[in-house]
Amino acid sequence: MAFDAGRHGLAQRYWLTALRAAREAGDQPLAASILGNLSYQATWREDGQDAVSLGEAAVLASASATASVRAAATSRLASAYAANGQLSEFRRAAAQAREILENRRPAHDPGWAEFVSPDYLEAQSAYSLIRLGRARLTQDDRAGARKLLTEGETLLASDRRNDAYRRSDLLRNAWLALGYTARGDPERSCSAGRVALQGLAHVRSARCAELLRTLRGELRRGRHTHPWVREFLPELDAALRRHAA
Question: CA 138 to CA 239: how far, in whole Å?
């Protein structure tokens, strides 16, 4: 997938072509999903305003769709609000997504919506909480940051999924590691990072590698002189080199 490979221009062109086709076919649920994907791409690129605009368009397009499709679109909008630093709006949209999904009827869903589940929504919320917490640190709001980081970490650490997808497991542990690092817990950060590296050996994903490069940069900062960090950094460097080869 071009998005996961970090080829954002190509991914956007594919999605825009697919969006035109979905609209011409009158497939509003698919159009909503594609708009949600475009919003999520903007979220990952830290373009919060575009992410919100696209997320709002996704929610609008999903208005007559099944509960799973509407919940997915609303979850994308929640992620966009988080990327744009809008905590209250994030919480409202995340809660709405969970509430909408309570009425899902899988037999009526399009096949591509099978990934939408309560645990999926919870994981997406956790990533957003960690993103918001890390942003609060840059605003010198340490108390607010700690609350958000802890909330996100708790959701991820209690994830009940028996995830058969290595990419999802890698993302979960990379975000956990970033949360622990931001909260000043290098030992747990390195532990989660090591689990993420196990997945990186089997997953070709520029998106996942980008998270781990961010982790590497933060662990290298002067405040992280913990022996666990000194031991883990060479492992992380070597894994990223192998992934890039």
Answer: 29
Query: What confidence tens digit (pLDDT) does each residue in 224-239 have?
Result: 578 999 999 999 999 9
Any idea which residue has 């817990």 for tokens? Answer: 185
Measured distance CA(129)–CA(94) in Å, rounded: 11
pLDDT tens for 144-191 read 999 999 999 999 987 655 555 678 899 999 999 999 999 999 999 999
- For 50, half-sphere exposure in the C-beta direction (CA atoms, 13 angstrom radius) is 13
Query: Was domain 1-116 assigned CATH 1.25.40?
Result: yes
Q: Which of 37, 72, 75, 71 is nearest to 54 (CA)?
A: 37
Q: Are the CB atoms for 51 and 88 separated by under 8 Å?
A: no
